[in-house]
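Hi W.,

Here's what went into the run:
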Amino acid sequence: MSASTIVSVDNLVKRYGSLTAVDHLTLNIGEGEVFGLLGPNGSGKTTTINCILQLLSYDHGQVELFGRRATPTSYDLKRRVGVVPQEVAVFNELSVRENVDAFCALYVSDRARRRQLVDEAIDFVGIGDFEKFRPSKLSGGLRRRLNIACGIAHKPELIIFDEPTVAVDPQSRNAILEGIQRLNREGATIIYTSHYMEEIEQICTRISIMDAGRTVASGTADELKSMVGTGEKINVGCSVPDEATLEAVRSLSCVRAATYASGHLLVECLAGDHNLSDILGVLRDRGVSYGRVLSEPPTLNDVFLEITGRELRDEA
Amino acid sequence: MMRANFKATLLSIVRSPSLLFWPLAFPIILSLVFSMMFSGLEQAYRLQPVSVAVVRDANYDKATGFDELLSSVDDDGDEWHVFDVSSVGSVAEAERKVVDGDVSGYICLDADANPSLHLSPRASFSLGSGSLTSAQSVLDSYIRVRSEMEDLAKKDPMLLADPTVLQRFSSDAVSTERLSVTANDPKASVRYYYALLGMAAGIGSVLAMKAIRETQANATALGARRTLAGFPRWRVLVSSTAAAWLASYACLAVGFAFIRFVLGVDFGGREGLALLALGAASLVSSSAGAIFGTFASDSGSGVLTAITCVLSFFAGLYGTYSQQLSDQVAHNLPLLAAANPIRQISQAFYSLMYYDSLEPFAAHCATLLVTALVLGSVAAVRMRRTSYVNL
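Here's what came out:
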């Protein structure tokens, strides 16, 4: 984490009647970070973001942006923040260019400066060929990119992306993620929420997993993986092992489950330093010949499911 | 910033055909309907000369002064041009002219020299009731005057030798004088058009509702995004409301221009002041629309339309009964009538049309502005929120 704190949330509590949506949440986001906010549906991610943005009032706690207490009328702070909401929130009746200009004008008064910023934002997201189009004439991916352009045109120092890649094709998703990384390289601090673990893992320098309004784990992707008991998944191409060999593998202390199918022994491991050598040792000792061996380290998805549980979540 | 937001809001309104349709088309469509409805009414009261054949037979020769009477109402340039007279020798000839369509009817006199008017069925339908009544009145007045002269001759024959008495009978002097107490002649239909413009203003409130909804974080995602603006909230709200007002005013002005210049509805020659009243009217409707735009629910346009319809009823839009009720409310409950902006709009035009003084007009406009101020204040309190308990 870099020296200066851009976002500081201290002991934040937000209640909706008897439901506590955010429960004494504390988090700090440093300058230059790409901070991932993960959590199942209803975990309080969007509520937290809306509280940071001062759109929602809260019952307790304090939010600071750029080292100053944020209030609903902290317009000078708001000018330094950009938001890309989950829903494409633009004027349907305005063209791409008119939209970007209209949103940029919410932060920048000077027309000449705005013209330049609008040009840059349109170039940045690559929608220059469509600047006279209305949103309804754009594909889903292009609309998402317009949504981003509207949020970043005023060159904010802090940009909040709330699930910006929902329902976009892989090419557009890739372009969006690369764009976010570019914005970060150019100096913007990013808060990124998503349900796509691989995206979070790909772009976030630090991740916070929320559940029931609280932070249940926080750290880099590797730190999070090391916090949980899940180890790698090992795939061994081998001849058919007898039942005793399979049992011997299963009985290893580092093995959570082992199955054989179509010439492959699939072993799910717990966290451990010598999992692969232990398993291959059993096979060797029992005379099972093996060829290709693949070891997949645990993913963020594994970590997420282990931390937040596997039961289905539905938002109220 | 305000200019950019004003432009964005205005463009988003004018590029929404479904939103603009009713505020723009409603006054035009309904005024056309009114125009068709009232054309028969206006026609009925317009004096058209009745073309008649006059049977100049022996009875005609006996009718003292009848020839002079017909001459006096057969003058093209006269205000009382009641008959277009052609002469025939017999009833049969007159009937033939009627059948041939050369005249609408004929006048013949009986043995007592009393004239009677015979009209073809077609003429009875095609001529307005005003024309027919006038034609009959001319003949009735002849019979009455002649009868008076005959009575006078029986009582004091010497009086008939007095030229001043005869002059009084033959002159067209009348005992009553026609005076206009209003700046312009009363026209029954104009009140409907004035109330219609009031209703059109009410319908235009949906424009402000849309404009404000799109600034409210609790109503739309776009509103949430715009609530995060880096400038004081009032700038977004004022520029958005101003754009909605301008769009609403433009719609009303188009409707007014159509009613005034295409349909020829009279506004007492005070079109400039009428435009001023429309400005105040759209200010009230924009303020009301702005209030409804602050609600999270999307049912505002239905509620606004319903309120507009009810208020239009009490502004006299829906016929004679509605107008009577409107007048009764104004007479017995003046504060309630003043609180009905559609009635105030209608009455502002009414004042322009019928009063020499501009005082009543100014009073109605002032009432509209106060209403706009009250509604606008309520809207401002609700609109200015930047932080919500719920989204």
